[in-house]
Amino acid sequence: VGVHQDDCFDFKLIEYYRELQTTHKNKKGGSEAFCDPHRTPGYSSSCTCTHPLLPVRHVPSTPQFYVKWDKAHQRNVHLASAVKENLDVLLLGDSITEHWMGTSLAVARQKYAGIHKQYQELIEGRPGLALGIAGDRCPQLLWRLGHGELPNNGGATPDSSLSPRVVWLLIGTNDLDEGCRRQVVMIGVVNLVLQLLNQTSSAVVVNGILPRPADASGTMEGSDDIQW
C-alpha cells in the first residue's frame, strides 16, 4: 500500500491503530494529528487529512465540486444496484479507477476514451464493474461503501450471493498528496479491506499506490515527486 516495509511489521503502527480507534470512538483528533510534519507538498499546499476510520462524504472543496461528486456517486449507486449476477471483479478507487469508465466526476472525457475501450474489452465482459470517483481518499471511499456502492446494497441488507469474486482496491494517492502521514494512509486502506471482508464474501486485492509527480506535466525528475 505504498509504505516502507518496516512499517508493516512495526508494533508502533499497531499501537497507533489502537489509538485511532480510541479517537474514533471519542470523536477526537483534528486534521493536524494526521498530517505528516515532514511532508513534501505535491499539488496541494496545505494538509486537509481527516481521520482514516471515519467516513466522510466529500473532500474539502467548492460547492460546485460537491454537485459533481454527488452526480458521480449517484451514477455508481445506479450501476451497483443494476447488478443482478455475480461479478468476476469489482474495481473500487479514485480517478484512476473512474477513468476506466472514460469519465472524470461522471463527465465523459475524450482523453480517457481509449481507456474506456480497454475497459469494455477487458472488464465489462467478464463481467466486471469499475466504481471510482476522481479526487477521493480513503474516508470518501469508506462512506461510499456504506451508501450503495456495493452490488450487495452496500452492506445495508447484505446478500453474499451478489458479492464479486474479487474486489480490486486502488486508493490512497490523494491522501498522501494532501499530506497525510504514511501510517494514516496505510491504516485507512487496511480499514477499507476489513470493511469489504465484513460486507462481502469477496477476495480483496490491494493495488500498490502508483508513483505521482509533483509536476502536473507528468515528469518524474523533480525533488518534490512523490514515489512511494
TrEMBL record:
Highest taxon of source: Eukaryota
Domain SGNH hydrolase-type esterase: 91-213
Pfam families the UniProt entry points to: Lipase_GDSL_2
The protein's name in its UniProt record: SGNH hydrolase-type esterase domain-containing protein
Organism the protein comes from: Grammatophora oceanica
